[in-house]
């Protein structure tokens, strides 16, 4: 098979790395890719939203399968564009990607089909939103309805913070049109768990659990980011939690989308909160999570190309997912100042140490080659350093050890990824 991957971050590097291990895969292209992806794929200078160019490239190069990895092109109809041209593509069509593309849609779906989630209201009028807040219990959560790079969620501890949040989202348009409509949601407490799944329209197959660390600073302080690190599996995702979620959340979501005429094929990412009243859905994503993918795929035994094909062909019921009996931890190496202002262009050293280190991986998120061919930083999140171990504590030690192998100018990381393990 010849495969084209759309995207250029750590998630796409992990997908490319895993696909490269498949005996079915002969050649991988990535648009636009990055310096790390270039080790396993040929990078093409086409943007993630340039559907016409992507389709033309796929036709010219005899691409057998295109994998659309990021949220924006999925929501905008990338898969639809490939299918309209008679080409195979992995990922949900636009009418199904709305599961992530509109928080108001997903909340209404959960209410209609009795899928456990936080109580909420939606608003398109900022004055009415502020009026509602006057009577609401604090803390409270504000969510931009549309896509906001994983950052459009504000947790507000006071009425003043909440009112300021409405202004930020709806009037100042910090996340552009994503804030035209907002969801105001009750604040849930408990453990967060991320669960990724493969879906073929009818059947859902659950991958291993993971947990992300969204905040920029140690101790879950600072601003929300795209993710500063992850671990897998989550010790809090017990067999009892799994059984409840399969019956009340996972399959009901797939069935609900089908009932709505929005058949979902691709990846559904379930962001769960394990509350005192049982597991509830925090959010859905319509694609692999980043950086959850960087700890889930290294533990997966299955051939990823075969799974992608099974999702498209509706034959997922014939497959069993298998995972190694181990654990993985990913520590994100970021640019100091992320997610706000940071400098790029610093040379990265130490990457060669991963070449022969079994069980240690470095997934590139924000890198590129400079004019001399040297790998330099090119984003807020630069690298995801992942290591496996016999258990979570060993994997964490290994990941932090490997994080020290790499150096660049304004390197920053959290020092407490996986700390929740100690409380399990």
Percent in helix: 25-40%
The secondary-structure class comes to alpha+beta
Give the number of helices: 12
Indicate the proportion of strand residues: 25-35%
Terminus-to-terminus distance: 43 Å
CATH class placement of the largest domain? Alpha Beta
Q: What is the tally of beta strands? A: 22
What general form does the structure show?
A: globular
How many domain regions? 4
Catalytic activity: 5-phospho-beta-D-ribosylamine + glycine + ATP = N(1)-(5-phospho-beta-D-ribosyl)glycinamide + ADP + phosphate + H(+)
GO molecular function: ligase activity
Keywords: ATP-binding, Ligase, Nucleotide-binding, Purine biosynthesis
Pathway: Purine metabolism; IMP biosynthesis via de novo pathway; N(1)-(5-phospho-D-ribosyl)glycinamide from 5-phospho-alpha-D-ribose 1-diphosphate: step 2/2
Task: Give a verbal description of the structure.
Strands 10, 11, 14, 15, 16, 17, 18, 21 and 22 form a nine-stranded antiparallel sheet that branches. It contains twelve helices and 22 strands. It has four domains: 2-94, Rossmann fold (3-Layer(aba) Sandwich); 119-186, Dna Ligase, domain 1; 191-318, 2-Layer Sandwich (D-amino Acid Aminotransferase, Chain A, domain 1), CATH 3.30.470; 327-423, Phosphoribosylglycinamide synthetase, C-terminal domain (Glycinamide Ribonucleotide Synthetase, Chain A, domain 4), CATH 3.90.600. The chain is an alpha+beta fold and 424 residues long. A hairpin with an 8-residue loop joins strand 7 and strand 8 (153-156). The protein is globular, with a radius of gyration of 21 Å. InterPro entries: ATP-grasp, ATP_grasp_subdomain_1, PreATP-grasp_dom_sf, PRibGlycinamid_synth_ATP-grasp, PRibGlycinamide_synth, PRibGlycinamide_synth_C-dom, PRibGlycinamide_synth_C_sf, PRibGlycinamide_synth_CS. Keywords: ATP-binding, Ligase, Nucleotide-binding, Purine biosynthesis.
